Amino acid sequence: MIQSSPARFALLVFTALILLWTALLSLPLSAASGKVTPLADALFTAVSAICVTGLSTVDMATHWSLFGEIVILVGLQIGGIGVLTLASILGLTVTRRLGLRQRLMAASDTNPMRMSRDASASQAVGLGEIGGLLAAVALSLVVIELALTALITPRLMVDGYGFWPALWNGFYLAASAFTNTGFVPLPGGLAPYETDLYLLSVLAVGVFLGAIGFPVIFALYRYVTGGGWRAHKRLGLHAKLTLSTTLIFVVIGWLAIGGLEANNPGTLQGHGFWETLLSSGYMSVMTRSGGLGIIDPAQMNGSTLLVMDMLMFVGGGSASTAGGIKVTTLAVLFLAAYAEARGYKDMQVFDRSIPNEVLRVAVSILIWGATIVLAATVTLLQMTGRPLDIVLFEVISAFGTCGLSTGLSGEVSDPGKYVLAATMWAGRVGTVTLAAAVAATSRSRLFKYPEERPIVG
After folding, report:
1. pTM of this prediction?
2. Which of 143, 222, 301, 355 has the fewest CB atoms within 10 Å, counting from its CB?
3. CA 208: distance to chain centroid?
């Protein structure tokens, strides 16, 4: 199974890890009270950690013991890196060599399109570069999280935390930001820091770096060390498309949230211009899949929730710690629509052509994601009787593994928690598995039916 379908193997391992983490979080040792955590809450937290979502049904600052917090931290690190990538890194560490099988495993974890029999030899990361990519994944995880910890810890000490509590909470926030999880270990959450330019900037940078993806970080590293603008061709199409689309969505969300919430007394009304700019920009970055919110979505206008729904549904970059259908998926769909409107037979961007098989996978992922969101929304609407905008926001936040919440996760019954947990699972592993399955499906027929065109549009 590892050789024939790495994505299916990853799905099974992912699910097994969720079950293991559920058992660990159910232990009395994991709860601060010393009591057994109910199954629905333990499972929900395990899925949220392994799928790096950040939604919670319990108070993350008070419910878990130190052991429980360590279990959660390990879970979100595994979920953020990726199962097959982590396995390849461990194999490389133990054997000090990387065979073809390990390279293919890691490659399929970063790009499901490699499963296609007709895949082009031109890839975002070549097989010969997989070793460098794995080193970049491990190094970036350690360096970025340690750097974020070093920047956050002094800020918490200024607020009265002792060195060790500040260091622990700083590392927790750093890992939560870079893995785009969204868990906050601080009592009261981030509300006391809603106008803190320093801390919010550090967290936003961490979320942005996690959301663009390890292949892009690897490409940027090669770009910087390989001569900068003189070696601009080394910054490949995937990196350019991911960075440009991500920045466009951040700016759109920034303007939309700031404009729509400026006169809302429950959120930004009464804030100064610079405070509004800071809060709206920060929340826009969090819709990449960060989830470390400073504004209560339940107090936002319905129009703002709809904009954030769209941003969370798209999510971050491919092979990143973020969720959603991914920015490159939407970029390919828009490029296809533009090419069709101009009468071109192929998609072109940044002086490169994109094969039609990529469009096939992008359309499949979009339909798959929309179907999951629709099914979960209808189910929870029937269960809860809550307004559509509240339920839809929670469902898309779960599917996009974002973690921003209207509070619905903590209010629903146990069956509702299971529905949201299944949505998180499908959003995190379902799109990758579907992409690999569609890319690997390539059959030839010995006959062809007569062509007939239906009316479309």
Report:
1. 0.86
2. 143
3. 11
